[in-house]
Structure formats: structure tokens, C-alpha cells
Amino acid sequence: MESLRITLDQSEIPTHWYNVVADLPTPPLPPLAADGEPVSPEQMGAIFPAAIIEQEMSGERWIPIPEPVREVYRLWRPSPLIRARRLEELLATPARIYYKYEGVSPAGSHKPNTAVAQAFYNQQAGIKRITTETGAGQWGCSMAFAGQMFGLDVRVYMVKVSFQQKPYRRSMMQTWGAEVFASPSPMTQTGRDLLASDPDNQGSLGIAISEAVEDAAGRADTSYALGSVLNHVALHQTIIGQEAKKQFEKVADWPDVIFAPCGGGSSFAGLAFPFIADNAAGGRNGRPTRLVAVEPTSCPTLTRGAYAYDFGDASGFTPLMKMYTLGHDFMPPGIHAGGLRYHGDSPLVSQLYHEGLIEAVAVAQLATFEAGVMFSRAEGIIPAPESNHALRAAIDEALRCKRSGEAKTILVNLTGHGHFDMAAYDRYFAGELDDFEYPAEAIRASLENLPKVG
Ligand SMILES: *Cc1c(COP(=O)(O)O)cnc(C)c1O
């Protein structure tokens, strides 16, 4: 009988991460400091350990995964690849739909793949304490869990709107021993300034990053950890795509198209980047696998942003990165896919998009919940609202296949479960959610404040 769940042995967990930089047509542009010069490793040393900085700047194709990291990965990896037979039947599509399910991790998403690696390298460097930010709470939970695995204290600045909407994510972080503050908070100068001008500021990922970086830069025993965007984060996530490739080999199938949600781009990178190497050689189906990043219409970074140098945070603490951006003071509306509310995008994902090697599409909120509910009823798993974006695009593709009669193989990145997002599902069922198309005028206004470079 055909197995729906394609599993691997623990011994088949990849031994190396894949660095897409080695296969880029042109070298990546460096991050720039405030003076317009490339950021030096010494400057990055104020907030990151040396091993992470080395990975951030590396051009090596394969980077070994340290054994203590693989050992923690073994708590939930390899993650399953599942054929969505019931969804295919429901849609009456000739397409084959598979999903790679990252919700099996302790924190319920793909994010521990990098949190565990970052905690390990910080512990090795003698760091005692990590500060970070979190939007929906997924990253904060992942870092809190990973901190416990390697004996580090963790402080999380949590975007205020999520702090209020997702109290159980905060409890999870506290259960894993982390301190959690609603951002903007009174703990940093950035937070105090913002609260002085608007005590009801709902926060944003950019603001929370500013607070965490300010905190880490002020203490020698403290590093900062970022859950997305940066090259080393994308690198650590490539375990997802490498496992998926082995799983497809087992069933002698290969994706024609991959859909992944895209906020800061790390889970997209994780699943898609390992296929770039095959695409460069023409692809295994006689054509390249299409790699599609799916974002919300309310925060349309790739599809409507500018490709420019911009800050990673709201107040300009971080280096400037060349990326697709909506402007660092862009204020996304309080949509429920908190993990997708970021003004920028991974520089590597941005470069691949700019060079036409990947695609992007934006989908509206209501249609994503419709897809998530359909998927839950067919397949059982209740997806995170972020994952619903990829599901929406995949279902639309499967319906196109139905019209054209093409039996394409579709792969979805099911980046997490939605067990802590049920308030959002409740609001969807109650008809209280809206679609929001960011007004072109507001995007133009925000892009006018891009820093001037060169
Ligand atoms: C954080 C998150 C995302 C988006 O972040 P990326 O860095 O773009 O991957 C997607 N899905 C889930 C479940 C998340 O927690």
C-alpha cells in the first residue's frame, strides 16, 4: 500500500547545511555600516559570536552541522514529507500535492532549526545571555527552547500586538525559562522614546529588533539572535530542503513547483535553496523546479517593495542590507500572520528574486484562512496562519492543474501548526477578518525615507 508519510531514518539527517552563495550567478552585496562602508567582522562582533559571523560571510557550499546540534535535531528530525491525498481528492485535481511538515518541532515551527544552531555557537563562544525579538511568538519560543538546550539565559522583546493576542506563546517562553517584555518596552532607550510619543504604540518587528540589538550591544556577556533574514539563518534552515530532496528520491517523484510562505524569508530559503543547485543544472524533471515565495497583500515586500539598501529595524541600529523593502518605518497592519509582518526580506532571497531565479506572489488574508480550514478538514493538521499563505497558492495551482489537466507535483512548506493561533481562526469564523491591500501611496511615502547610499 502506498505510504502517505515519507519518513527518513535518523541516520539520514543531513550532515551539512547548504550555502546557496556558492551557486549564485553574482556575489552578494555586503551589508553596509552607517558610514556607507561594508560592515567589518569586528563591528558584527559586538552582537554575534565569531562562528556565526564566519557563516554569515561564507562562500563555502557545504558547512558541517556540529554533532551537538544534530543531537538536538534528533528530538524531532527528520520531519515528515506527507502526500496530501485527501486534499487532492477534495480538489479533484490531477496534481500531486505534498507538504513538508515543520510543526513537529517542540516549538511547533521550523524556527528551532536555526535557534538550536545559534544557541550552540553562542555557548561555545562563552556567551551567557541572548536577547531577541519575536512577532507572533514562534521565534521567541524557539530561542527560549534552544537556550535551555545549551544553558543560556534568553530575553525576548515581543511585539505588543502579539503579546496581547497570543498570551500562551508568552507562557511557553516563560515555561522554557525566558524573560518576555511587550515591545516597545521601558527596558531600552528605543522603547522609552517611542512610548513617550505614543504610549499605545502597538509595536512592530522592526522596533523589537531595535530593542534587542540595543540590549545586546550594551553587554559583553550578551549576544543577539535573529530568527530570519540573515544568511546564517537561511543556511541553518536548508536542512528542510535537503531532507525533502531525499524523501522525494525515495518515492521517485520530484516537485515541479514549491510554495513557501515568506516573511523574512528563512523557511522559504530552507526549503527552496537546496533546489537552486539542481535548477542550475537544468532541474531533475527536465526543467527547473519553480520556487515561489508567498507573502500577504498587506505586507507585499517582494511583489511591491523596492530593491534597495535599507535598515533591518525601525530605528536604524542594524547595518544596511541590500534587499526588497517597504521602507524601515513601514507599519504593517495587525494581520494574524504575525510572522509575515516584516518590512524587509532576506538579502539572499531578494537577490535570487531580483535575478529571476525565484518567483513571488501575494495573497489576501481571507483566502489564506479559507485554504487553511480546507486543509485542516482534509488532512487533519491545523496550519499556522503563515503556512496558510503557501497553502492558498498551492491550492490555486492545483485548481489550475484541474483546468489544464496537468499532473504537476506541488510541494508546500507547512512551516508550523496553528494551535496557538486559534483566536485568529475564531475571528475568521466570526467574519471579523478583513482583506487589506496596502495603499500604493503609503508604500511610496515609506520608500521616500529609504537611507541614501552611494
Ligand atoms: C516565522 C514564521 C514564518 C515566516 O518567517 P520566515 O523567516 O519567512 O520563514 C512562516 N511560518 C511560520 C510558522 C513561522 O513561525
TrEMBL record:
Gene that this polypeptide is encoded by? trpB_1
Enzyme Commission number(s) of this protein:
4.2.1.20
What GO cellular component is one of the record's annotations? cytoplasm
Family matches, as SUPFAM superfamilies: Tryptophan synthase beta subunit-like PLP-dependent enzymes
Q: Which cofactor does it need?
A: pyridoxal 5'-phosphate
Q: Which InterPro entries match?
A: Trp_synth_b-like, Trp_synth_b_CS, Trp_synth_beta/beta-like, TrpB-like_PALP, TrpB-like_PALP_sf
Q: Which residues carry this modification: N6-(pyridoxal phosphate)lysine?
A: K111
Task: Mention one GO molecular function.
Answer: pyridoxal phosphate binding
The Tryptophan synthase beta chain-like PALP domain sits at 75-416
Uppermost EC category: lyase
- Tell whether Amino-acid biosynthesis is among the UniProt keywords: yes
Q: What is this protein called?
A: Tryptophan synthase beta chain
- Which keywords does this Swiss-Prot/TrEMBL entry list? Amino-acid biosynthesis, Aromatic amino acid biosynthesis, Lyase, Pyridoxal phosphate, Tryptophan biosynthesis
